[in-house]
Amino acid sequence: MGKFEETRPNSRSLFEELVQPYVRFLHKRLGVDYTFIEGGKEHYFTGMMLKKSRITLLDSEIVAYPTTQMLRNLLVAQVLFRGQKLCLMTSHFESCKDSAEERMRQLQLVMRKMSEAPDDVTVLFGGDTNLRAAEVAEVGLPSSVCDVWEQLGRPLCCRFTWDTKYNTNNNIPVNRHFRFDRVYLRRASKDGVPQVDPDSMGLVGLEKLKCGRFTSDHWGIYCRFSAE
């Protein structure tokens, strides 16, 4: 799960691996204040929550990954926030080491979609990419797109979002860690449009629940942005 915020909490949140019982729970508890967008209906899927009082949903779409073997897709929402156009994207890329080729195809599609957005739109992508560093290096990022973690100076506190040394949900006996969950930003380039910059990044979900398990086997990402 990743959260994208500017100064006050819970403006917009992106989720991975939602299931219908939890979606119904969220609607019941938060449906008055939030707009929900779902990337599917069956198995598990991605989703977004948008604060109604602050964000206006203009349009949304689900973009299929043509060669996925795991029913993965890209969820896209066009929104207005304080009069500024934003394009929000989230996805859960193909899982497991052997799916590297498919993951790279999915990354290429996301980067193309981000690059093709109109120049007066700021694009934010956040999700569980399952990417390894070598895969990102092979595909490469467009010059207009930045990795927010790198933009912030690669803070060590957010270096790994999947870490079996500290997250025991999967009971993996060896210590392994990856930065599977990533946030990408493509700023609007049109003259006069405010420039969005990342201010900070942190991890959430680091404390165990009363049942003795973490909320997820991944840590969540919490980001703050500002616009000038």
Automatic annotation (TrEMBL):
Keywords, ordered alphabetically: DNA damage, DNA repair, Hydrolase, Magnesium, Metal-binding, Nuclease, Nucleus
Any GO molecular function: single-stranded DNA binding
UniProt-listed CDD domains: TDP2 (cd09080)
Keyword Nucleus among UniProt keywords: yes
A GO cellular component entry from the record: PML body
GO BP term, pick one: double-strand break repair
Cofactor: Mg(2+); Mn(2+)
Subcellular location: Nucleus, PML body
Top-rank taxon, per record: Eukaryota
Record-given protein name: Tyrosyl-DNA phosphodiesterase 2
Record organism: Lates japonicus
Organism classification: Eukaryota, Metazoa, Chordata, Craniata, Vertebrata
